[in-house]
Amino acid sequence: MTNQSISGLGVNIISGTTVYGEVMNASEVVNTLNKVDTSTHNSVGKVKTSRPGMIDTGELTVDLNYCGAAEQDALRTMWDAQTVSTWMIVAPTSASGVARAWSFSGYISSIGTPKFEKEGNATMSFKVAQSGPITVLSTAVAGVTDIDMTDEGVTALTLSPTFDAAKYGYKVTTDLADTGVKVTLTYATAGEAAYVNNTSLATATPSSAITLGTASGSVIMVSVAVYKTNCVPKVTWIEVTHGYV
Amino acid sequence: MPEESFPIHIGGKKYALLFEPEDVERIEETISLFEAFHPHHRTFNNATAILWRGLRNVDNDGKMVHAIQQGPPGREKAYQMVRQFCREGFVGPAGMMALYESFRRALVLSEWFGEPEKDPMPGKPPEAHEKNLERPIEKPTKRSLSGFVASILNPSGD
């Protein structure tokens, strides 16, 4: 016998059209409905009664591995500017996962400097205060129908496994002489917009070259996200290794 | 596409085949180009090795560069492209024959293989040329054969 539990592995946190990689933990956002006491001296059986009041909004806590990515450093800028944006918790997008996202407006209420421990990874944490109701989304976008990658020029790289719309993680190993990678997406569904490494990308158009790590064997993670209004975004990650070591 | 390359379409995209010396060197780590054209050696594996090293794209500067990465991961991509070419608009093994014909033409253009010049006027009898002149076929004699063997063993004649 088995049950219908799904893995928590593979959640994505998005703000606007920015996907945050290296997420270690994403907390729940708890909303509480306040009770307005309607009890009176003549309550039958001395039972306290109440009616629904206002909603206490919650807070999202996110723990990341800090790697100096632009979107990680931009979190502090958002905190400084008190930016209110749309935040989204996207349930693990895998073949066995569910198409769900929880969307709400919020602002960064708390942010720490990265934490460096002598025996551990550099990490950082931040909190997002919810400032609007949570909308549950359950219609997935169609997403991309193909992903092609090349080096910084026009030489094709090999996606492993081969592209499949039901797969959300790929590996690519470049040649040692390569300095960057370009991504070309194919998508055609009306109203959908795709982003590579948080930059908008039209269909069938190569992205700008994304710079590789200089050391042979170094890894960069490239995000591919497809959005549509009121739909669950599809986020795909491509692990790019510099050089076949 | 430069003149020494041969155009080829795979998956609706236009590429070119061009074989530089280092490409041939790498192909021949898998199979000799002369063996590769024997029907018994027209395998997907060998076709992959040739396409992988010879397939070219034109970059933004108009330079012909490898269409598939040359590191080990590129082999899988080349294999997929061979399979794609062979099933695109060809019946049965005709795709593989067409692919090898493309390889052959590209190797001629890249000056690895020769190709006799075509007769400018089909049907015209060949012009008198020393090699076309009819000669009585001489039966090899024991003497002529021993002279031939001696010339191989002692080419300087000392």
Q: How does the SSE layout of this entry go?
A:
The complex is a heterodimer of chains A (245) and B (158).
Chain A: E1 12-15, E2 18-20, E3 23-26, E4 32-37, E5 50-56, E6 59-65, H1 70-81, E7 84-90, E8 101-111, E9 123-130, E10 135-137, E11 146-151, E12 169-173, E13 180-186, E14 193-196, E15 199-200, E16 210-211, E17 219-227, E18 234-241
Parallel strand pairs in A: 12-18
Antiparallel strand pairs in A: 1-2, 1-7, 3-6, 4-5, 6-9, 7-8, 8-9, 8-10, 11-13, 13-16, 14-15, 14-17, 17-18
Chain B: E1 6-10, E2 13-17, H1 21-27, H2 33-36, H3 44-54, E3 55-58, E4 64-66, H4 74-87, H5 94-109, H6 142-153
Antiparallel strand pairs in B: 1-2, 2-3, 3-4
Helix pairs in contact in B: 1-3, 3-4, 3-5, 4-5
How would you state the average pLDDT of chain A, rounded?
94
Beta-strand percentage of chain B? 5-15%
Please report the first level of CATH classification, the CATH class of the domain at 6-109 in chain B: Alpha Beta
E-strand count of chain B = 4
Question: How many H/I helical runs of chain B?
Answer: 6
CATH architecture field of the largest domain in chain A: Roll
Stated plainly, the CATH topology of the domain at 6-109 in chain B is called rbstp2171
Task: Give me the oligomer status.
Answer: heterodimer
Biggest pleated sheet of chain A = 8 strands, antiparallel
Sheet with the most strands, sense and barrel status of chain B: 4 strands, antiparallel
Shape of chain B: globular
Radius of gyration of chain B: 22 Å
SSE order of chain B, as H and E?
EEHHHEEHHH
Mean pLDDT over the full residue set of chain B: 82
Low-pLDDT regions of chain A: none
Q: How many structural units, i.e. domains of chain A?
A: 2
CATH homologous superfamily assignment of the largest domain in chain A: Hcp1-like
Number of strands of chain A: 18
Alpha-beta classification of chain A: mainly beta
